[in-house]
Amino acid sequence: MAKIKYFLLGLLIGVILVGSASVVKAYLLKQKVLGESTVTVATLDLSTTPQTALFNLTKLAPGTTSGEQIIRLKNTGSTGIKYRVSVFPTNAENDNKLFQSLEYTLKSYTLGENLSKTYGGTGSLLKDLQNLEINQRLAEGEEKILKMEISLPASAGNDIEGTTTNFNIVFDATQSEGEF
Questions:
Q1: Which of 2, 80, 123, 133 would bridge 84 by S-S if both were Cys, CB 3.0 to 4.6 A apart?
Q2: Residues of the chain with pLDDT > 70: what percent?
Q3: What does the alpha-carbon distance between residue 178 and residue 180 come to, in Å, rounded to a whole number?
């Protein structure tokens, strides 16, 4: 009978210990939910006007210019951006003597359309317009104006007579704090 007593006492102590450990364990593992968290990534978007060819020149003669053409840039994304501009011939055929001879002037303007900076000018070749970072930031929804002019220098030789070239003007944008 003493064995049964000790067995029952041991069983009772075991149940109490296991039950206590379960209660403590449940207490130590209690959870609190803070609610649903949301993260949204900004959008990066730059629109241009015009959206197609800026220049469509025929009969450009040495010593003449295209006249200034207006480019409107607008940040249509949801974060501030900075941007740069490059010019590339559309294919190997267009990387010809005419393309190699063209010069450019690019002007950037502030919001009130006051000239803020001129890039290029006499002697600045269009083919060298690569990754030119424009030192203007565009806030969300902000618009800037650029004016671009191309010219054929008077020193252009007869070897470009009757030639044609095609090129793309490319604007790359990144968030204001980002790196190109």
A1: 133
A2: 88
A3: 7
